[in-house]
Amino acid sequence: MAGDLQQPADYKPGLNRVTFQSEGVKMVGNLHLPADYKPGDKLPAVVVTGAWTTVKEQMPDLYAKKLAEQGLAAFTFDFRFWGESGGEPRQYESPQKKIQDIKNAVSYLRSLPMINANQIGGLGVCASAGYMAEAVAEDTRFKSFVTVAAWLHDPESLRSVFGEEGVRRKMQAGIAAQKKFAQTGLVEYVPAYKQNDPKAAMSSPLSYYGSSSRGAIAQWKNQFAEMSWVEWLQFNALAAAPKVNVPTLFIHSDNSALPNSVRKFYNTMPGQKKLFWTQGQHTDFYDQEPYVTKAVQVAAVHFKNTLKDTKTAQK
Question: Is position 118 within any domain?
């Protein structure tokens, strides 16, 4: 775990390890600052979150580092229950807790002297795009939003992915694990990723999670608290669409996850919005070139064009 919260004098260009609080839980994050950052700067900032079950050192830090190279401050963190952050049970995928953690990450950013509190955006990759969408919809401190390879599920799309019976089995397993935890305090775990294992959270062939040179890094624990299914299956990412009123960019492709859900979200959402439809498989957007660099370039232009509030921020 990181030590005490760094003081402003300690912040430097590049990566800064920090801690903050989310509902009393100690959270660990990485603040990425541009190479030309100097004390006294007031920077626009982007909260960057990754795929479900992941930690900050996977796709979030990659995107954040590249956004900092484009002149933006970018912030990643481990959600509670994951990575270096606190909270029990471990490896518990809770959309609602993650939404709250995102809001508290914004509160932390707004406390920093180098961040313009009126210039904060959010970038969500894969499932966290749905969590980020709800946070953006509920929290007016967000001024801009980008999704990359967004997984935006609702009941209909889950049935198309898992089948009616598959959804039912996962919910039953989740309820049983939830009951066991309530009665004994013991957590039932399954693999986060294991090819062809029907109990695993992800069982389709995904080289990202199967390769130590990609997503299977030391900081990532290949576990999924089975009781997570209860909340996760009931979360409806599309419900946020009518409530998102900030300029939004969707970066997606036909070969990425749930493209029809992204189109549905886009069509339902009011206000300023843009689709950037490109090429690439879903996990190509996690760490592969040229997909990541192109996504960052397009996202950086969007943020620079939409995070333009220059008035003095009130913290």
Answer: yes
Are 99 and 135 in contact, with CB atoms under 8 Å apart?
A: yes
In whole angstroms, give the CA distance from residue 190 to residue 203.
11
Q: Which of these, 132, 138, 110, 135, lies nearest to 299 by C-alpha position?
A: 132
- Within a domain: residue 186? no
pLDDT digit string, tens, across residues 56-85: 999 999 999 999 999 999 999 999 999 999
87, 25 in Cβ contact below 8 A?
yes
Sign of torsion over alpha carbons 95, 55, 302, 299 = negative
Q: Residue 289: helix, strand or coil by DSSP?
A: coil
The one-character DSSP state at 140 is T
Sheet architecture: strand order including 273-278: 14-22, 25-33, 73-77, 43-49, 115-125, 144-148, 248-253, 273-278
Which residue blocks in the chain are alpha helix, DSSP H? 59-69, 95-110, 128-138, 155-184, 207-210, 228-234, 259-268, 284-287, 291-306
- How many other C-beta atoms can be found within 10 angstroms of the C-beta atom of residue 212? 9
Which CATH number characterizes residue 262's domain? 3.40.50.1820
Q: Distance between CA 63 and CA 55 in Å, rounded? A: 13
Judge whether 227 lies within some domain: no
Give the pLDDT confidence of 14-34 residue by residue, as tens digits: 999 999 999 999 999 999 999
**What's the domain count of the chain?**
1
Provide the residue range defining the domain that includes 285.
Answer: 8-155+236-306
Tell if the pTM clears 0.90, that is, is over it: yes
Of 54, 53, 68, 26, which Cα lies nearest the Cα of 228? 53
